[in-house]
Amino acid sequence: MAILFTSFIWYNNTEWSISEDYSIKFKSDNPSGVFTSFKGKIIFAPDHLESSSFNLIVDVKSINTGNGIKNKHALSKNWFDEKRFPEITFTSSQFEQSGSGFSVIGTMTIHGVPKVMSIPFTFKDNTFKSNFKIDRTDFNVGSTKGMSSKAATKLDIEVSVPVSKI
Amino acid sequence: MKKIILHGIIASALASVVGIVYQVIYQSALDCDFSKVINPISISMACIVGCLLISLGYILLSKFNLGKFKGWLNSLISILSFASIIGPIGTTLPLDINNPELFVGLIAPLHLLPALAFFTISSFFKYE
User: Fold this and answer.
1) CA distance to A14, A33, A142, per residue, from A26 (Å)
2) Which residue among A36, A67, A72 places its CB closest to the CB of B93?
3) How confident is the model at residue A4 (pLDDT cuts 50, 70, 90)?
4) Which of A:117-156 have CB within 8 Å of B?
5) Contact in structure between A163 and A42 (CB atoms under 8 Å)
6) CA A38, CA A60: separation in Å to the nearest integer?
7) Tens of pLDDT, residues B53-104
8) How far is CA B84 from CA A17, A166, B28, B89, in A?
9) Residue among B94, B95, B100 whose CB faces A68 most closely
10) Which of A28, A32, A64 to mutate to probe the B interface, most B CBs <10 Å?
11) Is A117 helix (H, G, I), strand (E, B) or coil?
């Protein structure tokens, strides 16, 4: 009985460690890029979504648009204001099965602005994958005036996070 | 004409050597790697093309007996060399290359090398 109970607890709280070959990409006509620093705590069991949780942190400073000047500009007060808001965070509150995958509802905080979002994802071969859109103006990142109007407001986000069981 | 072409070839060899040495020193000193977008072959090719284009300008001056415009040609070469730096400043590198902000520091001097090499050795070549 004790063994059964222990295995139930273990399965209910499958914690995963993030492998190093993750990728977090953002794409639009202009700009596109990646974030290269990402950490967090992932507890996920497909059959026990109620006990699953994501607490994810992206280091804003790790942005790479492929152009040094753009990187510096992205970190400035006009955009991410990295000195005041050094992290992008996502904290889950609820998981749902959706079609062949899942969706996680949680709070995304970018540039100090929290927003509840529902993010679809799949989990296959120990890899979480997700594609969704973000509107930068929802988080007051940049503006839509002047030169900033040339930067797309809606960006496609592509996330791939290989994990291994802890 | 042969002398002008020889001038261009020797200048391109000189610029290539200097460019490759600069790339090696720059990348090792700043611990960066741009070999995916710039390597000894691309540096040499760019120097050869640059120096031969300068030679072509000189050949045209010589052919049409426009020697008095040599100063203007040299000015144009210098201006174009400087202007060509704008390209790399706006370049978006592949996203798996780290520290793209260091790219301009590597590429900008390289853009000046063909003209610099050509002008440096020009006093060794006497032609009308």
Assistant:
1) 29, 5, 15
2) A67
3) very low
4) none
5) yes
6) 9
7) 999 999 999 889 888 899 999 999 999 999 999 998 989 999 999 899 999 9
8) 47, 52, 25, 9
9) B100
10) A64
11) strand
Which among B2, B19, B36, B3 is positioned nearest to B114, based on CA atoms? Answer: B19
The amino acid at A92: S
> Cα Rg for chain A, rounded, in angstroms?
17
Strand partners, A133: A156
- Which two tokens mark A108? 């995304």
A58: tokens are 């992206």
Residues B12 and B107: their CA atoms lie apart, in Å, by 16
Q: What is the pLDDT of residues A86-135, one digit of tens each?
A: 999 999 999 999 888 999 999 999 999 999 999 999 999 999 999 999 99
Structural contact between residues A101 and A124, judged by C-beta atoms closer than 8 angstroms: no
Q: Which residue has the tokens 């942005």?
A: A63
Residue B23 has pLDDT above 50, yes or no: yes
Name the nearest CA neighbour of A46 among A106, A97, A94, A87: A97
A71 with B89: Cβ contact below 8 A: no
> Residue B46: CB partners within 8 Å, gap ≥ 6?
B19, B110, B114
